[in-house]
Amino acid sequence: MLDFKRLTLLRELHSRGSIAGTARMLGISPSAVSQQLAKLEAEAGLPLLEQVGRSIRLTPAAQHLIASVDEAVSVLEAASAELETRRSRIQGVIRFAAFSTFARTYLPDALRNMAMVHPDVVIEFAQLEPSEALDAVSGRRADIAIVDEFTHVPRRADSGLVRTLITTDQLDIFLPHPVSSVADLAAFGWAFEPHGTDAHVFSRNYCRALGFEPRVLFDSPDPRLHYELVAAGVAAAFLPSMVFNRLGPTLDNVTRFAPTKSPAPPPMFREIYAVGRRGSNLRPAVKSFLHILKTVAA
């Protein structure tokens, strides 16, 4: 009989691509990961990993096992959701992951409303960037992940995940001082999110579509820091409307770009989704929390 925990470890290795990455995510040593995988190979009676240069690759047998694990877990989650619908009270634990701006803006109200409606539901929260949050849902370390998606920068598709649109967030260019045309934007140094992120790709492509190559001087995942750099007069930045929440910056110290000598640039938006696994999204507690998130964000 194959050990189910070791099978899920193999699945995590498939997602992470390396034993070191798997160990970091699970908080165990690489040697412990290797030992568990060796035991799984012994149980299977077939090689599951093969060395390719300095990296490892899953064999066809391992790929087949992973597909079976995904199917088995989906069935178990659907069965668990069915049992929850038979209870007289909605209860359970929801593991929720979201990026900082969304959490600061909506999480306190969402938690308060959830506690009022379903006091037996416990929400566990982790602040994670969208790509990390998606990995947490795929790896079954979270039930719901909040992610953003920018125009022309689609996120990866996963047939085992379902997503729910929570809200749409407008983005604007903010400057230390007014300028009259798009051409003037090239003179600023810019604050971008880290290289390789969807936000960085979107911002750079948008600048190029306007006809200039941005001079990126500041690299940070924190839009509040971007705001502070704009307010200090040292950078321009793309800022989402969500950053101007009751706990965040105000519009007093920055200037929204509004050219007078050229056509205004096209509007910018990002869509905010809640992503969960198929089967898990049928749980009454999860469905109720998604409804509350949409209501609060509206």
Keywords:
alpha/beta; 298 residues; single chain
Shape: globular
Give the termini distance in whole angstroms.
49 Å
Radius of gyration: 23 Å
Mean pLDDT: 86
Main pleated-sheet profile: 9 strands, mixed
What is the SS-derived class? alpha/beta
How many strand segments?
11
Low-confidence stretches: none
Number of helices: 9
Helix content: 40-55%
Percentage of β-strand residues: 15-25%
Question: What is the H-and-E element order?
Answer: HHHEEHEHEHEEEHEHEEEH
Overview of this structure, please?
This protein is α/β, with parallel strands linked by helices. It is built from 9 helices and 11 strands. It has helices at 4-16, 19-26, 30-44, 60-85, 100-117, 130-138, 198-210, 223-231, 284-297; strands at residues 49-52, 55-58, 92-98, 121-127, 144-150, 161-175, 189-192, 215-219, 236-240, 255-256, 268-277. The strands form 2 sheets. Strands 3, 4, 5, 6, 7, 8, 9, 10 and 11 form a 9-stranded mixed sheet that branches. A two-stranded antiparallel sheet has the order 1-2. Helix 1 packs across helix 4 (60-85), helix 2 (19-26) crosses helix 3 and helix 5 (100-117) packs across helix 9 (284-297). The chain is globular, with a radius of gyration of 23 Å. It starts with a helix and ends with a helix.
